[in-house]
Specification:
Structural class: mainly beta
Radius of gyration: 20 Å
Number of strands: 18
Distance between the termini: 27 Å
Order of helices and strands: EEEEEEEEEEEEEEEEHEE
Number of helices: 1
Helix content: under 10%
Strand content: 25-35%
């Protein structure tokens, strides 16, 4: 008899349309409206070789970056024009956001720039990458950051969701390990084993606690509830051949979606 294993991984999802929906604009913005790092901030702990990400509107994810690029993997990248110095090299795990809702490929415009006020249509960045991909020590990492519209800059600044000094200087916002499921209980009947899983809650970052600009009037003090749930994926094989990838495509379709546990 061969002994087999089933490993699982959880991935974070986004908020469903359970809050007030922001009016959608069918095309990209007519004037420049950036979503970026602009105060010397960055995202860290995201290996560039595997990094992916999306930016969408809180409570209205149909408005998102679509095919438009926004991730600067290094200072020399041409994404959004000139990438920020904080993007560093293409192998230091430091990346920045440098997108624009006026770019071709986005699926809409979050706000009417003529009437937008501070905090309107918060933008949510969902970033993932893989550490030690190709080895049995692989692990997925993620980052969820949100920020409201800042009228003073006419843009969305993800720096406001990261660490800020008392003087307002930004520093990198670090990625975290994707929560790992653990077996709570199991039972077997008729040749089928049922496993109940649980995992630690994922963390999110937002601009709701910073005191400098009023970009979070919807959830003052935070947190802004940008996490909708978790996708659980499974892969099966021999114990002697443990998986060497955290790439979700290799793990196949999700076996369930849950808010914190999965049967």
């Amino acid at each position: 008899m061969r002994i087999s294993f089933k490993s699982l991984a959880a991935a974070a999802g986004f908020v469903a349309a359970m809050f007030v929906v922001v009016p959608a604009y069918a095309q990209q913005c007519g004037d420049t409206l950036s979503y970026r790092h602009g105060l010397n901030g960055s995202f860290s702990g995201l290996p560039e070789a595997e990094v992916t990400g999306t930016v969408s509107v809180f409570a209205n994810p149909a408005i998102n970056n679509g095919a438009a690029l926004f991730i600067c993997k290094s200072t020399t990248d041409g994404v959004g024009g000139q990438c920020q110095p904080e993007a560093g090299s293409n192998s230091d795990g430091m990346v920045t956001a440098n997108g624009n809702w006026a770019d071709l490929g986005v699926t809409g415009c979050p706000v009417n720039q003529n009437t937008a006020t501070d905090g309107d249509a918060p933008n949510v960045a969902f970033m993932t990458s893989i550490v030690n991909e190709g080895s049995t020590n692989h692990r997925g990492v993620y980052l969820i950051a949100s920020t409201g519209y800042f009228s003073g800059a006419g843009s969305y600044l993800f720096d406001l969701a990261g660490p800020l000094t008392p003087s307002g200087d930004a520093s990198p916002l670090g990625a975290s390990d994707i929560p790992k499921p653990s077996v709570v209980s199991s039972s077997a009947a008729a040749g089928i084993t049922t496993v109940n899983l649980s995992w630690a809650a994922a963390t999110t970052a937002d601009d709701c606690t910073q005191p400098f600009v009023p970009t979070c009037p919807d959830y003052p003090g935070g947190p802004r509830p940008t996490l909708d749930g978790y996708d659980v994926h499974a892969i099966s094989g021999l114990c002697a051949s443990a998986p060497t990838t955290s790439n979700v495509l290799a793990w196949g379709a999700r076996v369930c979606r849950s808010s914190g546990s999965c049967a």
